[in-house]
Specification:
- Residues 252-256 have low confidence and may be disordered.
- With 270 residues, the chain is an alpha/beta fold.
- It has helices at 33-41, 57-67, 80-90, 94-97, 151-159, 183-192, 205-215, 229-239; strands at residues 2-3, 16-19, 47-51, 76-79, 102-106, 121-123, 131-134, 164-166, 172-175, 178-181, 197-199, 222-226, 242-246, 263-265.
- It folds into 2 domains: 2-52 and 202-265, HAD superfamily/HAD-like (Rossmann fold), CATH 3.40.50.1000; 95-199, Rossmann fold.
- The strands form 3 sheets. Strands 1-14-13-12-2-3-4 form a 7-stranded parallel beta sheet. A 5-stranded parallel beta sheet has the order 6-5-7-8-11, covered by helices on one side.
């Protein structure tokens, strides 16, 4: 593990980059100026933004535009929501092949683009569903930062025997200075209670295989950049690619991990 202060000294060693969004490029509200400048310097080489956002890639691109991140700073976007949509469309994996067509959604309405264009029926009662889609805490509840808020809803899904698709494996995230829970924490609780959970996104090797196909760069020439040891760094290790751990993100306290990122730096900077 090598500590660096900028990637200008190592960028020439790579032909493609996989870059996390939340905690690396932006804080959920505004982009980090150093990160945008860094992406500018990588122009001409493929940069894939890989996010555990539980919504389609096009929706995430629209959000980035509103936030002030121009399209020219990257070549591809791949989200866990996009991977979820593809898995539900294709039903190639045995776990997805056995799902029915009636879905109960736990999450905010803005994430329902993950279901658009699919032969599915959205139902309002877990008892009427074949499976559930978990995209994370709904903004409309009393306290979206507290797991206890969602336990009654999760219990109803458990009672109905619903398998859960988790479209965002992240446990927590920082929105500005506020710590928010994510779909992964709800999925973790559900599984601990005996629920059947399938998570899509980092650190699953399948999403890295998709990312590498999109980059069209050999794994040995790719650098993955992220702030989460549990998802970004573990995922890169599982895919056999080098990694850069950004210390300033939500998982900065995980320094005792057994994982060994290739590089470490305080924040993404050139």
């Amino acid at each position: 593990m090598r500590h660096i202060t900028g990637i200008s000294g190592i960028a020439a060693d790579y032909d493609g980059f996989i870059v996390d969004l939340w905690g690396v490029v932006h804080d959920g509200i505004t982009p980090y100026p150093g990160a945008l400048h860094c992406l500018e310097q990588l122009a001409g080489r493929p940069v894939l933004l890989l996010s555990n956002a539980p919504r389609r890639s096009a929706s995430t691109q629209s959000m980035l535009r509103r936030m002030g991140v121009p399209d020219r700073l990257y070549t591809h976007i791949l989200t866990s929501g996009e991977a979820t949509w593809l898995a539900l469309r294709d039903r190639a994996h045995p776990w997805f092949a056995r799902l029915g067509a009636r879905v109960y959604h736990l999450g905010p309405k803005r994430d329902r683009n993950v279901l658009e264009g699919l032969d599915l029926t959205l139902v309002a009662d877990p008892a009427a569903a074949d499976f559930m889609l978990n995209t994370g805490p709904d903004d409309d509840v009393d306290d979206p930062r507290d797991l206890a808020t969602f336990i009654p809803e999760l219990d109803r899904c458990l009672a109905a025997g619903l398998p859960m698709i988790c479209a965002n494996p992240d446990l927590v995230v920082m929105r500005g200075e506020v710590r928010l829970i994510c779909a992964g924490l709800l999925a973790q609780h559900y599984a601990a209670q005996g629920g059947d959970v399938f998570s899509l996104g980092k650190p699953d090797p399948a999403i890295y295989a998709m990312a590498l196909d999109m980059l069209a760069v050999p794994p040995g020439r790719v650098l993955a950049i992220g702030d989460s040891l549990r998802t970004d760094i573990a995922g890169a290790a599982g895919a056999g690619i080098d990694s850069l751990w950004i210390l300033g993100g939500i998982h900065a306290g995980d320094a005792t991990t057994h994982l060994d990122p290739t590089f470490v730096m305080p924040a993404l900077a050139w």
